[in-house]
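so im writing up the methods section and need the Drug resistance transporter, EmrB/QacA subfamily record in one place, dumping it here so i stop losing it
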Amino acid sequence: MTVHSAARPPAGNDPARGRRPSPGTGGSPGPAVRGAIPRLMNAAVIAIQAMVSGVNLAVPQLSGSGLHPSATQLVWIVDIHLLVFAGLLVPAGALGDRLGRKPVLIAGLAVFGAGCLGCALAPDVPVLLVGRAVTGLGAALVMPATLALSLAVTPPGERGRAVGAWSGATGLGGMLGNLLAGSTLQFFSWPVFFALFVPVAALLAGLACRWAPATERHAGRSDVPGTVLLVGALTAMLFGLIEGRELGWASASVLAAFAAAAAFGALFVVHCLSADHPLIDLRLLAEPAVGAGVLGVAGAFVGMFGLFFLNAQYLHYAKGFSAIETGLAILPQGLCMKVVSPHSARLAGRWGSRRVVATGMALVVAGLVLLSLATSATPYWRYAIDLLIMATGMGLATPPLSSGIVAALPRTQSGLGSALNSAAREIGSALGIAVVGTVVTARFLAHLPPAVAASAHSTSDAMTAAGHLGSAGHAAATRAFTDAMGAGYRALAVLVAVIALTVLVWRRDAERPGVPDSRRAAA
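--- predicted struct ---
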């Protein structure tokens, strides 16, 4: 069965092999350009991830902007990029297989830049949502192509290092995104943050036109029905979660959304198990390291992006931090993950990956529980310790889970392993934001003073209205927010804990001595 690969290293870059590259190549790149290509690809990854992380810092300013988004619309503004990204990641990788990675990368950067421009010029929430969806499409086109093009010019013995550098670029982009958003929002309004990525995308696209090598085109088929079913299932599920509080959990629209999610999901499974060329060969998930790895990565990012969504709001509304202070305040977490992650493989080799994953997931849950206790009186150093605990857990758990996915598959399907890992991250991120956004909004509005709740369209509106009631009113609204935040973190902790226990039970077979791995043997 042919499996679409989202990041398969192209086999046709070497002219000595006599393969025909796509049109537009100027021949094999020279040594200087060959060395610059991975750095260019990593720069594109950094730009994508910087926008993803930085938009969370813009939530407080967006909430009080002239667009007047509701609390529910704010969740959609953050989540819709992740939804489109996750749903189209695998088919976008397959498109690169057929058309060549270079044109898909250039097109993706152009689409991403156009989406950012649309966001910057958005006159209302619907246009902003469309712009965010377009950036998600661009990101889905860019990410698989960057890894494939990096590997295309990297000698076989150095590909592990290239993959590590590419993975590190995702974390670096997150940290730089917080700094960029914080410093930009300190002096300018939120549209400027989106506008900054327009020239960046144009520059990267121009450099890619000049330097990126053309890759062999692989004949293949698009699984359009599978893509539609996957995106439909994700959209319906998130609609039910996000809109449930506002429309009513028992409303016809919400119940229909959950029913549609279940139906689309079931049809997606049936389709992928019966199609000749499925979007994803779901039989691969029967391998414990693959199935548990995908679930574990998704679970870890449920907690991480739930935190990202709330962090800026807590530091702004409860602690009174400025935008740039908020951007700096989250840096210890990113730095901690950068320090811990490289050591997780060594620890897994010594203790076993299951123990390292268990320790990491336990720390993620513990960090969420500790963060749920934060109030406006909590000193930053205490809050930072909680962030470091959670970051240590992420740094320990995610590398063994991710590497386990790829290692359990044949080398010919390493691209699919990368795609599954990336899709799990984005789906988990979208789910975490939807869950915590729904819980916090419902709890916050329910515990506001009556005089404030009547006019509370969003958190920003509530805080402004509470300020008109004097210090007591503002204190009551702040307390309502931190209480709601605590409930949101506890909900995330329970969800991550359930996922972690499932993963650990599932992975028990993956490390049992004497269990053959037919998939690795087939490589």
